[in-house]
Every structure is written in structure tokens, then in C-alpha cells.
UniProtKB/TrEMBL annotation:
This is Rubisco accumulation factor 1.1, chloroplastic. InterPro entries: RAF1, Raf1_C, Raf1_HTH, Raf1_N. Keywords: Chaperone. Residues 152-261 form the Rubisco accumulation factor 1 alpha-helical domain. The lineage of its organism: Eukaryota, Viridiplantae, Streptophyta, Embryophyta, Tracheophyta. Pfam families: Raf1_HTH, Raf1_N, RuBisCo_chap_C. Residues 251-275 are annotated as: Disordered. Residues 80-140 form the Rubisco accumulation factor 1 helix turn helix domain. Residues 281-431 form the Rubisco accumulation factor 1 C-terminal domain. It comes from Hibiscus sabdariffa. Residues 262-275 have a biased composition (Basic and acidic residues).
């Protein structure tokens, strides 16, 4: 029996870290072990004692490249460039089958002029074929009725090209209307424009009576708007309303057009004398560089229409220039200013002038819809004339919680006796096409 007293400590002066527990004493242990330690320690360890753990098979991370499916029809995929040019030259197949050959030739270095020289297909026609084939493919992907799609197998590129700007759902509805009414390219173009433009016309008169889900109603509303560009009554106005009634699909749209048509027949023609008695509010479009060429200018504070109406009253009242250099002096600071040529309506504006910026020109009560577009305008207002006096004058007032330009007669009906100011001028932003001025008869 071993005891702690039988194990004497051993010191090794040569090794300062020597410990008796690090000494191997096989003679002492061997008498108590059932096997020989020397043999056991020298026996090599076999890896077969513990069965190996099966390693999970690693997934193959490398995936071979698979090119996207070719847009070309199967019968054209094996053709070289010369073969594809021959197909285009002889128009072999349907138009939507050989149309994808054109962009494939672009990828190989051909240009629209070179393809036109070889095949006789003009560059404009090349673009029409490519776009129309893409429109047709989107209709196929959206599961459009095959009977409708077969209508465009022959000569359908011109029709499908016109609806390129519509969404997938709009295209399907437009295709239905085109097929049912046998529209030509011009009719398809008008339909696409009407469908695209309809959601933007929510502020127009009668918009709520037309249904957006019906292509015919969108087209009818376009003719309905165009009718209001003509005098009442007039042959052009009546013809446009009859056209709107012919294409309308919903009952509400038909009733709206009928009401306008019957009302126009019973209405009285405006007399030139009445127009002559109206208050003229000029609507001008600025020209590029007009301020720089002007001999005298007017500086006005600017307020945004969507801001608090109190800011219009708080804007500086006077802005004058003086001294040898014409230094502009104002009574207090302001964030936004505009410089305008000193037109005649502005020349008499001594104090209280302010320009109110509207982002939508449809707030102006002019009679024609020709300018009902989302273009920015400046409404120059004289704040020194706040009393609503004349029925035919135009005033800037708060109506239904928002700023609006309205006639004095309309404000009097709403019992509005004082407004923010009298409108003296409407300024439109400069653009390249300037042949679009409003006449005096265009105001309501």
C-alpha cells in the first residue's frame, strides 16, 4: 500500500522546475497493474478502434453557365447573319417572328442604316417592329385571349406600337377595344393617349362621370374635353360631343355627354358686346432672355399656393430701387423673389404686389381645356385691392381651405366680400413653342 510518506521528494538542482510528479516510476506502478506498462505504451494506436464518422457530402457550389433562352424563334436560331438578313429582306414569316432578328444583328455590329441598305427596312420601321414585338410578348405573357392576339398577326405592328406606353393591364384592355372597334393606327394612338392622360384630369369638369376601367370612356372623355375648346354653340363643339357619345361605354358617361350636348343646343350664344365689357386679365408666356433684354423690370416677392395664406399678407408690400446703381431696397427680408419685365399691368402696381406660384394651371378659370395641363404659373396679385367689387374681375381668395382664382360673381354667390387681392396678370414659364397664347374669349 502506497502512502504519501513512502514517496520522498526528489530534488534536481540542475532543473529548477523539477517536480516529483513528473517522474515516471514504472517499477512502482507495474506491481499493481495487470499488464506490462512497457509493452502497452509501445503498442501503436490503431485508428480502427473508433469507427470513422461519415462526412456529409458537400453540395456542388459551382453551377455551369446556362445562357438565357434565345428570343429568336426556333426556326431562326441556327441561322447566321447572312441567313437572318435574307429572312428580313424577303419577310419570311410573320412580322413578330422575324422582328427579333433585328436586335440580334445590332449585337453583331450592324447599324440601322446598314440593315436598311441590305433589307430595305427603314430605321423607323425597324424600331416599330422591335417595340411592337415586345408589346406583343408582354400581352402573351399576361395571358391575353389568343383570338384577340390573332388579329395582330398581319399588319399589327403599327397598332401595337401605339400602345407601348401603357401598362400591362391597360394594354390588354386597349387591345380588346382596338379589335372590337377595328381601329387604325391613328385611332390606336388616340386611344393610348386618352388612357394615359385620363388619371391626370381629376380636376376637369365631368371627370367623375367617366369610368377608367373602360377604354371607350377614356376616349370619350378626351373628345368631351376637346368640345369645350370651341364656342357654344358651334359645329365643331357639337361634332366633338357626338363623337364622345358614340365611343362612350358606361351609362354615366353617356348621360354626361348627352347633358352637355342638349345644354349646348339650348344655350345662348355669347355676344361680342358682353365680351367687350369683361375685365381683361392678360396671360403671357415669358420668352427666354426677356428679362435680360428689358429696359425696366419689376421685383416681386413670391409665395407658394400650398403654403399658409397668411404668408401672402406678410410678404413685403414695397420694393423700390434707388441711387445711381438702382439698388433694390425692401422693407423686410423674404425668401423668394421673381424678376419680371415691367409690362403694362405691372407698371401701375405701386405697392402690395405679390406673385403666387401655382404648380397646376388648372386653378385658373379659363373656359378652354387646351391649357389644362400640369404647368407652373405665377399669378400676380394686387393686395391693395381686396374688396370684391366687379362681377367680371378675377380675385385670389381662400375657397374650401385652398387658394383659388375665381370670378367676382362666383365669390359673391359664396358671400365672399373680401379676398386676398385682385389678379392683374398670369405668367407662364418660357418654353420653345410659344404659339399657344390665350385669347380674351378663353376666360370663363
Amino acid at each position: 500500500m502506497l502512502s504519501s510518506t513512502s514517496l520522498k521528494p526528489i530534488t534536481n538542482p540542475k532543473n529548477p522546475f523539477f517536480s516529483p510528479f513528473l517522474i515516471q516510476t514504472p517499477s512502482l506502478l507495474s506491481s499493481h497493474l495487470p499488464f506490462s506498462p512497457s509493452k502497452t505504451l509501445l503498442k501503436p494506436i490503431s485508428a480502427t478502434l473508433i469507427p470513422p464518422t461519415p462526412q456529409p457530402q458537400q453540395q456542388q457550389l459551382y453551377q455551369p453557365f446556362r445562357p438565357p433562352p434565345s428570343p429568336l424563334p426556333p426556326k431562326f436560331r441556327s441561322l447566321d447573319a447572312e441567313g437572318r438578313l435574307d429572312v428580313l429582306t424577303n419577310r419570311l414569316g410573320l412580322w413578330f417572328e422575324y422582328a427579333p432578328l433585328i436586335p440580334s444583328l445590332y449585337q453583331e455590329g450592324f447599324t440601322p442604316p446598314s440593315i436598311e441598305e441590305i433589307t430595305g427596312i427603314a430605321g423607323v420601321e425597324q424600331n416599330r417592329l422591335i417595340v411592337a414585338s415586345q408589346v406583343r410578348e408582354s400581352l402573351v405573357q399576361s395571358n391575353t385571349d389568343e383570338n384577340l392576339m390573332s388579329f395582330f398577326d398581319t399588319g399589327g405592328a403599327e397598332l401595337l406600337y401605339e400602345i407601348r406606353l401603357l401598362s400591362s393591364s391597360q394594354r390588354a384592355e386597349a387591345v380588346r377595344y382596338i379589335v372590337e372597334n377595328r381601329l387604325d393606327a391613328k385611332g390606336a394612338q388616340d386611344l393610348a393617349r386618352a388612357m394615359k392622360d385620363f388619371p391626370r384630369r381629376q380636376m376637369d369638369k365631368g371627370w367623375g362621370s367617366f369610368e377608367y376601367m373602360f377604354s371607350g370612356d377614356c376616349l370619350s372623355f378626351m373628345y368631351y374635353r376637346q368640345s369645350r375648346e370651341h364656342r357654344n354653340p358651334s359645329e365643331q363643339r357639337t361634332a366633338a360631343l357626338k363623337q364622345a357619345l358614340e365611343v362612350a361605354e358606361s351609362e354615366s358617361a353617356k348621360n354626361e355627354v348627352l347633358q352637355e350636348l342638349e345644354g349646348g343646343r339650348d344655350g345662348k350664344e355669347e355676344k361680342e358686346d358682353d365680351l367687350g365689357q369683361r375685365v381683361r386679365v392678360p396671360v403671357v408666356r415669358m420668352q427666354f432672355g426677356e428679362v435680360a433684354d428689358a429696359t425696366s423690370v419689376v421685383v416681386l416677392p413670391v409665395c407658394k399656393a400650398d403654403e399658409d395664406a397668411r404668408l401672402i399678407l406678410e410678404a413685403p408690400l414695397e420694393c423700390a430701387s434707388g441711387g445711381d446703381f438702382g439698388v433694390v431696397e425692401v422693407e423686410k427680408g423674404w425668401k423668394r423673389w421673381v424678376v419680371l419685365p415691367c409690362w403694362e399691368p405691372l407698371a401701375g402696381l405701386r405697392s402690395g404686389g405679390v406673385a403666387v406660384a401655382f404648380s397646376d394651371a388648372r386653378v385658373i378659370p379659363w373656359k378652354t381645356n387646351r391649357w389644362y395641363m400640369e404647368e407652373a404659373i405665377l399669378v400676380v396679385t394686387d393686395r391693395s385691392r381686396k374688396e370684391v367689387e366687379l362681377d367680371d374681375a378675377f380675385y385670389l381668395a381662400m375657397v374650401d381651405g385652398g387658394l383659388k382664382v375665381d370670378r367676382g360673381s362666383a365669390l359673391k354667390e359664396m358671400d365672399v366680400k373680401e379676398c386676398l387681392g385682385t389678379v392683374v396678370l398670369v405668367v407662364r414659364a418660357p418654353k420653345e413653342d410659344t404659339d399657344d397664347q390665350l385669347s380674351d374669349e378663353d376666360w370663363e
